[in-house]
Amino acid sequence: METEVRPVVKELERDEKFPLDLLKKIAEMGCCGMLMPEEWGGPGLDTVSYVLMIEEVARVYTAMSTALGVTNSAVQIPLLQFGSEAQKQKHLKRLASGEILGSFCLTEAAAGSDAAGIQATAKRDGDIYRLNGAKTWVTNGSVAGVFIVFAKTNPEAGAKGISAFLVEPTFKGFKIGRHEDKMGQRSSPSVEILLNDCEVPAANRLGEEGQGLKIALTALEGGRIGIAAQAVGLAQGALDESIKYAKQRRAFGKTISDFQAIQWMIADMQTELEAARGLTYYAAWLKDSGKISLSGPASARGGAAASKAKLYASEMANRVVYKAVQIHGSVGYSRETDVERMYRDARVITIYEGTSEVQRMIIARDLLGK
């Protein structure tokens, strides 16, 4: 990350260029399929190891950690848990090796936090399903080789009528729409996916009909631990830059690191960062230890552990990067500094993979036994 990625981050962000060549290099280290067992082409590592990888990548380049998080967690985990043998044979090894990337297509223009409110439909027509609708904010959407798409097979059944499908970009009726012009993480593509009678083989349905929402929530619960790790890594990067700058910048005859105002900001940044890191590692350890099951009977408590980490870490990262820009002063407002990019990158972390408000709902329900 330091020798090959950091030198080109500014250029990639400026040109909004997805770093596919760099992602292929990091894939050779096993980072595109860390959670996959060896039989499916991964190194078979645990969640704590995965969290450490995401944290270290995000410390240097948030957009790359987003791409890795989606393909590792949001796509491969549901495929491993709910996919048929044939589906796993076709996609998992290619995903784990980084030969292809995955995308997760749940959000729609009128359905974000309310996942059950999606309007995309899937109608059975012999040996195929015909999918119609539009998905928005699809990470990796312009570069992915396989998409998990959620659509309603039984609109009258509401949340229980949602099913999941493995869709490939070559399928008839599949089209990539507009690219979002985003505040931050500009080299991580977020696109619209248009489905116009998209023909998906019935064999590509993931799980059973009506199981889609369960699959989606399972992916999101586990993914929140990765997002917490991303927030921790981003905040660590901002703190590192702040310490370095404070030791160099001089004012009133001394470095600004000699002033108590700066020292207290740095002390608060570090303390909050370590608290978030503790919550994140603890949630990852719980998942690995078998003490919780994010998809089993203990999903409420497991989801609460992931939600606590995601809630606190994402909001912590925004507070830390705010202070980082303040420490840098006017130069922190310049596109020439890393902290300016980090400030923009951090804002979305309290929104995707479940907003802070949704995380508070999950935590409260767990505590109140609902």
Task: Please tell me about this protein's structure.
The protein has 370 residues and is an alpha+beta fold. The protein folds into three domains: 6-101, Orthogonal Bundle (Butyryl-Coa Dehydrogenase, subunit A, domain 1); 103-206, Butyryl-CoA Dehydrogenase, subunit A, domain 2; 212-368, Butyryl-CoA Dehydrogenase, subunit A, domain 3 (Up-down Bundle), CATH 1.20.140. The chain is 49% helix and 16% strand. It is built from ten helices and ten strands. The protein has helices at 9-15, 20-27, 47-60, 62-82, 85-97, 212-248, 260-289, 299-328, 338-347, 356-368; strands at 102-105, 121-125, 128-139, 146-152, 162-167, 174-179, 190-201, 205-206, 250-251, 254-255. The chain has a four-stranded mixed sheet with strand order 1-4-5-8. A four-stranded antiparallel sheet has the order 2-3-7-6, with helices on one face. Strands 9-10 form a two-stranded antiparallel sheet. Strand 9 (250-251) and strand 10 form a beta hairpin. Helix 8 packs antiparallel against helix 9 (338-347). It is globular.
List key phrases describing it:
370 residues; Butyryl-Coa Dehydrogenase, subunit A, domain 1; Butyryl-CoA Dehydrogenase, subunit A, domain 3; 4-stranded antiparallel β-sheet; 10 helices; globular
Q: What's the structural blueprint in terms of helices and strands?
A:
Elements (H helix, E strand, L loop, with lengths): L8 H7 L4 H8 L19 H14 L1 H21 L2 H13 L4 E4 L15 E5 L2 E12 L6 E7 L9 E6 L6 E6 L10 E12 L3 E2 L5 H37 L1 E2 L2 E2 L4 H30 L9 H30 L9 H10 L8 H13 L2
Parallel strand pairs: 1-4
Antiparallel strand pairs: 2-3, 3-7, 4-5, 5-8, 6-7, 9-10
